[in-house]
Write a structure and sequence with these properties.
Elements (H helix, E strand, L loop, with lengths): L14 H10 L32 H10 L3 H14 L3 H4 L13 E2 L3 H8 L7 E2 L5 E3 L9 E6 L10 E7 L5 E7 L3 H14 L4 E4 L5 H11 L5 E5 L6 E3 L7 H14 L10 H8 L1 E3 L5 E3 L6 H14 L6 E2 L4
Helix pairs in contact: 5-9, 6-7, 8-10, 9-10
Amino acid sequence: GAVDIESTPNGAGGYFHAQWLRAVAGGGYTPHFFPWWLEPAYRLPLAPGESLEPFSEEETLLMAKEKLAPEQIKYRRYLARTFGGLAPQEFAETDTDCFLVSGRPVFDVHAIDARLRQLPSPLRISQNAAECIWLEPQQGRSYVIGADVAEGGAEGDFSAAVVLDLDTGLQCAELMARWPLSRFAQELARLGERYNGALIAVERNNHGHAVLYALQHEFNYSRLYQHAESAGGTAKLGWPMNARTKPQAIGALGQMLRDPACGTAFASRRLLEQCRSFAYGDDCAMAALPGTHDDLVIAAAIALAVREQGGGLRLAGVPR
């Protein structure tokens, strides 16, 4: 038999949101999204001689992409007046902005939603979606990889990595999977070699030390980021995510997302959806909402923070 789960979004971070994200990622159920304009009754007739012009840029895009009639645009304006900020949830238009973020989002949700509507398709996705490629490595270019490490069990957080072009900041690739620590180190080394010996910055907290050890001693990867807590201080392998460095890294990501000239740097739906559900808690700590993940958020933030430092002013081993 078949099991169907049907619901209005009811906010980001809940059970249905978690199930939806899992389905979109290829696990569990098959996702089906039905925007409000599929209902024939959702339109308002125009009075004789009535014109809705000028149309907003968003309305013009919707009419071109979804073939909406003026009567549907009039109904959409009615929804905005009547429901205000709840309209995207109660009368969904996309499968991202319909999940309203509760609390205080860390990042600009409107900027993220705008980018989600214009994402490029990946050049290649691995069979289990653990690896996605948008831009192949180019000869002579330099790259940085930010990595967030998880324990690797069947449940819980993912290990994740984000590859950025050191000069442009464009996202080139990403990893996201529940791998054992040694396997994640192996995949990082492979990805780093592929992207011209990219500088790899691993969050060194908790299990990060094991991944750094494996990169150095099992896979002989030398381009590893080192961090000094103070000017002239002793540099240690990896990126330390703490009360001082986390705002720095998250701030770099937030600035990139807000800047219209840079907001198109990110190509990953998974990354942007994680950014969307990254919020301040009651204690003002920044973290993923319940039922969501922030592994790619942390990986991207580390990569951007290292890039802002000039792309690896401190390296382990001999630069290639």
